[in-house]
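Design a sequence for this backbone.
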């Protein structure tokens, strides 16, 4: 049972959004080719979905600017521009994404006191979203992960998939993903490799 996890392919992370990932919109046609290929038995999308005033927003920390480090519930936290506030336009999935084939949309990031980069659980690893149970119930044995942003939500989701779903083969689809910084992407790829995650391209999947 092969599943595809599309991480945070939202307006807010694409050019024109509130936390744009450089060239983030370029993942959309690649994701659509994967979706339309028929290769996957199950397709899941995650959606960053924050309440207004979320604790990861620099605007919630007087004197702080976006992309500065701050603290959230006593732990170091990268402070972001306000982004993906639930039910706003910024939080919508990219309008070019073929959502007709998506079986489940997993929202995350609703607790104002903890960030949730991963589609599987909060950053403090306390609260789970339920996605791991859902994928296990569906009988998933292989999970390909892609989307935005490679150095944050994609990396965290792929690593949590390995940790929380033992026995599931996890791969990262490099050309169906974009990151916030080149250094962050390079580190993310090293870390994913170290965790046993294969780095693959959409072409290798579509030709298989
Ligand atoms: C993300 C920063 C904050 C992501 C979400 O989707 O990678 N990054 N919230
Ligand atoms: Zn966020």
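Sequence:
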């Amino acid at each position: 049972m092969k599943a595809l996890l599309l991480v945070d392919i939202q307006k807010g992370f694409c050019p024109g959004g509130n936390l744009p990932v450089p060239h983030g919109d370029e993942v959309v046609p690649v994701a659509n080719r994967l979706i339309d290929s028929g290769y996957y038995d199950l397709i899941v999308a995650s959606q960053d979905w924050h309440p207004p005033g979320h604790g990861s927003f620099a605007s919630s920390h007087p004197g702080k600017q976006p992309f500065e480090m701050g603290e959230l519930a006593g732990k170091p936290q990268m402070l972001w521009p306000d982004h993906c506030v639930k039910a706003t336009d910024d939080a919508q999935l990219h309008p070019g994404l073929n959502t007709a084939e998506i079986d489940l949309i997993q929202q995350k990031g609703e607790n104002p006191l903890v960030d949730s980069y991963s589609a599987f659980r909060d950053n403090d690893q306390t609260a789970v979203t339920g996605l791991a149970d859902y994928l296990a119930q569906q009988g998933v044995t292989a999970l390909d992960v892609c989307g935005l942003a490679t150095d944050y939500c994609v990396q965290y989701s792929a690593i949590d998939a390995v940790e929380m779903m033992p026995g599931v083969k996890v791969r990262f689809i490099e050309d169906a993903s974009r990151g916030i910084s080149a250094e962050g992407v390079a580190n993310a790829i090293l870390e994913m490799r170290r965790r046993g995650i294969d780095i693959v391209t959409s072409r290798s999947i579509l030709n298989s």
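The radius of gyration is 16 Å.
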